[in-house]
Design a protein that fits this description.
Elements: H1 3-21, E1 25-28, E2 38-41, E3 47-54, H2 70-74, E4 78-82, E5 88-91
Parallel strand pairs: 3-4
Antiparallel strand pairs: 1-2, 2-3, 4-5
């Protein structure tokens, strides 16, 4: 497994752990295909489609901005960003004019 995939795999697990601590039940996309990595469901009935992303930086240390694809926007997929320290931030879906 190359370093990039290893980092992504570890951050995927950190994201699942973070969501679980927030009270979500997690349904993982085991195929690796599709527009989201996990589906999170809480006891209030809130359901989130989530694409997990590792925060990456350019050589000058600025963060590379990640945005949902057109298909992800259509399906209201949220992004969950995991930084180099394992900190997670959920970026909830916002309707955009596309």
């Amino acid at each position: 497994m190359n370093r990039k995939h290893q980092k992504g795999f570890i951050n995927h697990l950190k994201a699942i752990q973070w969501l679980t601590k927030k009270g979500y039940f997690i349904f993982d996309n085991i195929s690796g295909l599709g527009c989201c990595d996990v589906i999170a469901l809480n006891t209030d009935g809130e359901t989130l489609l989530i694409d997990i992303k590792t925060v990456t930086r350019r050589k000058d240390k600025t963060i590379i901005n990640r945005v949902p694809t057109k298909q992800q926007n259509k399906m209201k997929v949220n992004l969950l960003m995991v930084d180099e320290n394992g900190n997670c931030k959920l970026v909830k879906y916002k309707k955009t004019s596309q």
